[in-house]
Amino acid sequence: MLGLGIIGWIIIGGLAGWIASKIMKTDAQQGIFLNIVVGVVGGLIGGFILKLFGVDVEGGGLIFSFLTCLGGAVVLLFLVNLVTGRRAVR
């Protein structure tokens, strides 16, 4: 995902963070800035996890980068909810 540049990180991170917040039902608590942060940090977490399993994350392409960010963002939101003890808003 390094080839995308900072604008690519923001766009893909924002989309991944927003979708992850919908999946984890935390969207009502987050704004656009937090969605971007969650998505970008999720991309780092997702890339780290995939590298642990020996997956080459650098040559994956746009869709693979998005899915990596999405998966990492879901993991991040799950861990935040676990640590803070927050329940999903229903």
From TrEMBL:
Topological category with respect to the lipid bilayer: Multi-pass membrane protein
The secretion signal range is none
Would you tell me the Gene Ontology cellular component terms?
plasma membrane
Q: Where in the cell is it found?
A: Cell membrane
Residue ranges of the TM segments: 6-24, 31-50, 62-84
Ordered alphabetically, the record's keywords are:
Cell membrane, Membrane, Transmembrane, Transmembrane helix
Family note: Belongs to the UPF0410 family.
The identity of this protein, by name, is: GlsB/YeaQ/YmgE family stress response membrane protein
